TrEMBL record:
Record's subunit section: Homodimer.
Name this protein carries in UniProt: Kynureninase
GO cellular component terms, semicolon-separated: cytoplasm
NCBIfam families named among the record's database cross-references: kynureninase
Swiss-Prot/TrEMBL keywords: Hydrolase, Pyridine nucleotide biosynthesis, Pyridoxal phosphate
Reactions that this protein is recorded to catalyse: L-kynurenine + H2O = anthranilate + L-alanine + H(+); 3-hydroxy-L-kynurenine + H2O = 3-hydroxyanthranilate + L-alanine + H(+)
Example GO BP: anthranilate metabolic process
Family as reported in the entry's similarity comment: Belongs to the kynureninase family.
Annotated pathway: Amino-acid degradation; L-kynurenine degradation; L-alanine and anthranilate from L-kynurenine: step 1/1; Cofactor biosynthesis; NAD(+) biosynthesis; quinolinate from L-kynurenine: step 2/3
This enzyme's EC code(s): 3.7.1.3
């Protein structure tokens, strides 16, 4: 069943000012990839850049590359580029570690800074690693507790005992987006700090960390930023806090002078202190290719296309909802959501597997969510249209109701 999309869909692709970016990615034939929010696609320039990094920088130039190819400057150099994507000053973002580890560093640092307050406030159903790291932190720092409340109750619950509000800016499951400036202002009103997890925001929605008064943020390199599986993450610390926070992972790469080889730890200046050990340079170089691609467009253009794609998807699936017991999990108002849309169904897992078998790659989030990411750099309007046609076919024929779609792998 390969139908030609109607004229207005083809026209939308034709008029898309970002259409040329699709050829900047390697996308397999016959696949509609709607999972760039989980693992971004491979930029076409990455393999050659990696080959050069491996064969020339590592293979030929060996250890001299720390200086000659500026490996040592890579965490800050790529951080400064990501800063432009997230609306931060160039000296306020550094690439380091994983999102989970960066959260640990910033959460402990923030709690120590807010020594007279006990509460970390978050929402139930936040991304698992955020809640797990917060739980781990309360085990290490005595007298601190994690309190979770529904998103709509968070602002009212911030009080004088709240040390840190920890939220994922665009929710990984529902796609719901918090108003960063509003939550931050409410927290500051009560003297609390906010840590924003930008994993589903960076490269997907316009961000203005500086303008929103944000304190601290972390985010992922392998989703919308196309850095590759397990790409290094980034962290942001507002300039006013950089000198006042101390990372609990006081590794040598965050030292004021790592190559003085002193016994005594002395925190580096500014954002540098939030690095820990030696960066994964090959992974960082791969991330830089993805980040560079984003810098060739502007976030407002990305936002417009992301909104148009996700709104088209919602418009096309809405008629299927009642008939097939599907429901829209994401906010209907594009201003309230990020760049992915989720649907709930009792058989979401099997439907997801059946879609993948037909070349439509979205993902499943337990227990009942089907998630579709609309990465504006490489998704076409005709992809959205075709994906919904295939979904409709799978639902109306109950093709999902087959033994082969019930088996679960380790990664779902
Ligand atoms: C993907 C994601 C992470 C990833 O954390 P890792 O440490 O890279 O495994 C963290 N938080 C959110 C909200 C995410 O979506």
């Amino acid at each position: 069943m390969t139908q030609t999309p109607p004229k207005h869909i083809l026209d939308a692709d034709h008029a898309d000012p970002l259409a040329h970016f699709r050829s900047e990615f390697r996308l397999p034939e016959g696949i509609i990839y709607l999972d760039g929010n989980s693992l971004g696609a491979l930029p076409a320039a990455t393999p050659d850049r990696m080959k050069q990094a491996i064969e020339i920088e590592w293979g030929r130039d060996l250890i001299g590359s720390w200086n000659s190819h500026d490996w040592i400057g890579a965490p800050r150099r790529v951080g400064a580029k990501i800063a432009r994507i997230v609306g931060a000053g160039e000296n306020d973002v550094v690439v380091a570690d994983s999102t989970s580890v960066n959260l640990f560093k910033l959460l402990v640092a923030a709690l120590k800074h807010q020594d007279d307050r006990s509460k970390i406030l978050s929402e139930p159903g936040n991304f698992p690693t955020d809640l797990y790291i917060a739980q781990g932190v309360t085990n290490v720092l005595e007298g601190r507790q994690l309190v979770t409340l529904p998103a709509d109750d968070i602002i009212d619950a911030i009080d004088e005992d709240t040390a840190v509000v920890l939220l994922t800016h665009v929710h990984y499951k529902t796609g719901r987006k918090f108003d960063m400036a509003k939550v931050t202002a409410a927290a500051h009103d009560k003297g609390a700090l906010v840590i924003w997890d930008l994993s589903h925001s960076a490269g997907a929605v316009p961000l203005d960390l500086a303008g929103s008064g944000a304190d601290l943020a972390i985010g992922c390199g392998y989703k919308y930023l196309n850095g590759g599986p397990g790409a290094p993450a980034f962290l942001y610390v507002a300039p006013a806090l950089q000198g006042r926070l101390e990372t609990p992972l006081s590794g040598w790469m965050g030292h004021a002078s790592p190559f003085a080889f002193n016994d005594q730890y002395e925190a580096g200046a500014g954002i540098d202190r939030f690095q820990c050990g030696t960066a994964s340079i090959l992974a960082l170089i791969s991330l830089e290719v993805g980040v560079d691609l984003h810098l060739r467009t502007d976030m407002a253009a990305l936002q417009r296309k992301s909104e148009a794609l996700s709104s088209l998807f919602i418009a096309l699936v809405t008629p299927l909802c009642e008939q097939f017991a599907l429901s829209l999990v994401s906010p209907a108002d594009p201003a309230e959501r990020g760049s992915h849309v989720s649907l709930a169904h009792d058989h979401a897992f099997e439907i997801c597997q059946a879609l993948i078998a037909r070349g439509v790659v979205g993902d499943f989030r337990a227990p009942e969510v089907l998630r579709f990411g609309f990465t504006p750099l490489y998704t076409r309007f005709s992809d959205v249209w075709s994906a919904v046609c295939i979904l409709q076919d799978i639902l109306s024929t109950r093709a999902w109701d087959a033994e082969q779609f019930r088996a679960r792998s380790r990664v779902t």
